[in-house]
């Protein structure tokens, strides 16, 4: 798979993906802001590790997660039901910055903490019923860079990977979740932690 390489600036790049609408902002937040936000989020978020059930088997999730929102609506995926906590000041400020760009009001943020290269997120689409049709998912990275893989659900020749940089924003919208799956694979490299925030609208 050919990796995509990007200049280090804040101009958005539309990924060349059939049946999808995906934008990448390599440096949405400055390096300094990103490091500050990483340090705050590591300390202030209520990170938890939940058991998940996939095809009838129960495992511990290979990463830590947390859910925050401006309402009390639960989010259900992989047989887990998460109940949100109220947005923290840092989450509200990040949400505000990306809302100005995405022109949409997010209700909810699902956070992931990949502690090292053995933490991962398997192939899936963000297509839960409560996200509605054609959801906008805005995904922010702080800390270690990780590869983000896409594969088309029906045209098996179509795949690509993007290295999500410290301070970057990836926006998936339109029919992306209907037609593509995504994952964060494990890596054998000795790497440190990555925080990911995915802002969503829960109806
Ligand atoms: O960590 C990431 O960049 C992806 C997270 C993700 O796909 C999800 O939480 O649905
Ligand atoms: Fe996802």
From TrEMBL:
GO terms for molecular function: catalytic activity, acting on DNA; demethylase activity; dioxygenase activity; hydrolase activity; metal ion binding; oxidoreductase activity, acting on paired donors, with incorporation or reduction of molecular oxygen. Gene3D superfamilies: Alpha-ketoglutarate-dependent dioxygenase AlkB-like. SUPFAM superfamilies: Clavaminate synthase-like (SSF51197). One of its GO terms (biological process) is DNA alkylation repair. Its cofactor is Fe(2+). It comes from Aquimarina spongiae. Keywords: Dioxygenase, DNA damage, DNA repair, Iron, Magnesium, Metal-binding, Oxidoreductase. PANTHER family: ALPHA-KETOGLUTARATE-DEPENDENT DIOXYGENASE ALKB HOMOLOG 3. Pfam families: 2OG-FeII_Oxy_2 (PF13532). Signal peptide: none annotated. This is Alkylated DNA repair dioxygenase AlkB. Residues 105-203 form the Fe2OG dioxygenase domain. The keyword Electron transport does not apply.
């Amino acid at each position: 798979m050919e990796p995509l390489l990007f200049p280090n600036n804040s101009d958005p790049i539309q990924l060349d993906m059939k049946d999808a609408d995906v934008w990448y902002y390599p440096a949405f937040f400055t390096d300094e802001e990103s490091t500050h936000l990483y340090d705050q989020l590591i300390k202030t978020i209520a990170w938890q590790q939940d058991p998940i059930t996939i095809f009838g088997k129960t495992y511990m999730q290979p990463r830590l997660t947390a859910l925050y929102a401006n309402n009390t609506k639960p989010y259900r995926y992989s047989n887990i039901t998460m109940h949100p906590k109220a947005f923290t000041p840092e989450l509200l400020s990040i949400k505000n910055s990306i809302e100005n760009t995405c022109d949409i009001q997010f209700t909810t943020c699902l956070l992931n903490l990949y502690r090292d290269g053995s933490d991962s997120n398997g192939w899936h689409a963000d297509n839960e019923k409560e996200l509605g049709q054609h959801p906008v998912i805005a995904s922010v990275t702080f800390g270690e860079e990780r590869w983000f893989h896409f594969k088309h659900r029906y045209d098996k020749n179509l795949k690509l990977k993007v290295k999500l940089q410290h301070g970057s924003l990836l926006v998936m919208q339109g029919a992306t979740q209907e037609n593509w799956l995504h994952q964060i694979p494990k890596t054998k490299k000795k790497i440190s932690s990555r925080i990911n925030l995915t802002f969503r609208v829960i109806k």
